Amino acid sequence: MIRKASRFTMFPVAAPPAYNRLLVYWQKFDPAAFEYEFDEDELAAHGINVDEAAEVFWNGFEVMRNKRQGTGYQIIGLTDAGRVLKVIAYEKRKGLIRVITGWPV
């Protein structure tokens, strides 16, 4: 069954089988179970440091598939300081999440 999702959904919504290939099981995501890799220059260009980008994964977030990169995700969440950020990330290999860019929302 396919359900309509709000603009930002906490979990991926069921989609036709061709599009339902999730790399990260976001419903049971445990940030401690992953290693992280960051494009520090790209984040810095948008006024975000690596610590803030990492905090998004620990403080709860919403997930959307990234339209520009089929295997990537848009992660929207809070930093410890309460700043709302959107980061673009993908699973580079099993257990390694690469954050390629981000910006304040």
Describe this structure in words.
With 105 residues, the protein is α+β, with helices and mostly antiparallel strands. It has a single domain, classed as Nuclear Transport Factor 2, Chain: A. Helices cover 14% and strands 33% of the residues. The chain has a five-stranded mixed sheet. A hairpin with a 6-residue loop joins strand 2 and strand 3. The longest helix has 9 residues. The chain is globular and about 30 Å long. The N and C termini lie far apart (32 Å). The N terminus is likely disordered.
Tag the structure with descriptive keywords:
disordered N terminus; five-stranded mixed beta sheet; alpha+beta; 14% helix; 105 residues
Q: How helical, in percent, are the residues?
A: 10-25%
Give, in order, the helices and strands.
EHHEEEE
- CATH classification class: Alpha Beta
The rounded Rg comes to 13 Å
Helix and strand arrangement:
Layout: E1 35-38, H1 40-45, H2 50-58, E2 61-65, E3 72-78, E4 84-93, E5 96-104
Parallel strand pairs: 1-5
Antiparallel strand pairs: 2-3, 3-4, 4-5
Short synopsis of the structure:
14% of the residues lie in helices and 33% in strands. The protein is α+β, with helices and mostly antiparallel strands and 105 residues long. The protein has a single domain (17-104), classed as Nuclear Transport Factor 2, Chain: A (Roll).
